[in-house]
Amino acid sequence: MKTVYLDYAATTPLDERIAPLILREMAHPANASSVHQTGQRARGRLEEARTGLAALLGLPPDQVVFTSSATEANNLALRGFCEATSRPVKILTSQLEHSCIRSTAERLADRGAAELQLMAVGEDGRARLPETTDASLICLMAAQNETGVIQDLEGARRLAENSGALWHCDITQYFGVEPLNVPELGAGLVSFSAHKIYGPQGIGCLAGPGLKRIAPQLTGGPQEGEHRAGTQPVALIEGFVEAAKLAVAERSQRRSHLRALESLLLGRLREAGLPFFHNGGNGARLPGFLNLSFPGFTGADLVIALDARGFSVSAGSACATGVMETSPALAAMFSQDPTRAEGALRITPGKDTPVEAMESFADVLIQLVSRPNKA
Ligand code: PLP
């Protein structure tokens, strides 16, 4: 049975146009810190890639630091800021953030390195920014990774500007999908990774003028402007930057394709007259990013039933050590109705998902949810 992958928010396959470039470059020895010509060639490639990515972000090249992932970039931002800032460090954030922000912030708070101020979350999937803040760090992501809901970015820019706080914005799901220029966005730091934009796994970045306000967390050599020690994986970085360039160049065609797939599925569900909730579906949202709940079904049961029929999607809750754990983001959105979070199914097609695949997914999903509690 051929599997239909509809979980592109989790990870994307490597773009076929990029794989040969990475393999070719990996065949060369490439330590960009070596003084010999081979090392200098690697350094040239590395800096060319950095300049390319910086241009896409609207930043100078020395404001881009490569890391192994968005998780590492987010850890570097939070831990690095707490280390470099005199206490108390107040962090304004919310339950919507990815676990690599949430749990890092909680750990910092547990050891007294930070104090957390949690914003309320509305049913619309947006964090409610306060009018003013005495926090020194604001962590508000650009688009939420379970619902695709775009946050109040203009509000965060104003709040950071008026309060002098550093705004760290996780753009992992947002980059390449929405137009972006970091100085216009107003974030002091942004983070994202290659494997969400058809680039290789194992490479990400932290970028922005706020780098000067953080202490390095991996220490050793002077790589990455002394923000992050360790020999740079030059071929992966080149693959990352190529993926970023393609995402920006092909943005409008990818968006229209995703919107078409999304309308197809929503249209079929409505036609079938089935009751369902479109979580976070009423405001600005990334194209092709669907979070749906079907009354009477848990997301986890549907994921298993769909998997057995050849469709890979994900749920808003996961089975951790035998206990169902609901996603904190969805739990915060639906604190009045926990079944809505437990029922959540995340469907995220990709740029190459065929229309026919979405049609057969719609057929199977409708069949499953037309038989209450028999997923
Ligand atoms: N931030 C967001 C919003 C994400 O969606 C993810 C991955 O799902 C991450 C961070 C972590 O990214 P990485 O897998 O590169 O560590």
Summarize the structure.
By secondary structure, the protein is of the alpha/beta class. The protein has helices at 19-26, 37-57, 70-84, 99-110, 153-163, 182-185, 234-249, 251-271, 299-308, 328-333, 338-342, 355-369; strands spanning 4-5, 64-67, 90-93, 115-118, 137-139, 166-170, 189-193, 204-207, 277-278, 290-293, 311-312, 314-315, 317-320, 323-326, 344-347. Residues 69-71, 98, 100, 141, 145, 170, 172-173, 193, 204 line the site of pyridoxal-5'-phosphate.
What does this structure look like?
The chain has 375 residues and is an alpha/beta fold. It has helices at 19-26, 37-57, 70-84, 99-110, 153-163, 182-185, 234-249, 251-271, 299-308, 328-333, 338-342, 355-369, and strands at residues 4-5, 64-67, 90-93, 115-118, 137-139, 166-170, 189-193, 204-207, 277-278, 290-293, 311-312, 314-315, 317-320, 323-326, 344-347. Strands 2-8-7-6-5-3-4 form a seven-stranded mixed beta sheet, sandwiched between helices. Strands 9-10-15-12 form a four-stranded antiparallel beta sheet. A two-stranded parallel ribbon has the order 1-11. A hairpin with a 2-residue loop joins strand 13 (317-320) and strand 14 (323-326). Helix 3 (70-84) packs parallel to helix 4 and helix 8 (251-271) packs parallel to helix 12. The mean pLDDT is 95. The site of pyridoxal-5'-phosphate has 12 residues, from helix 3.
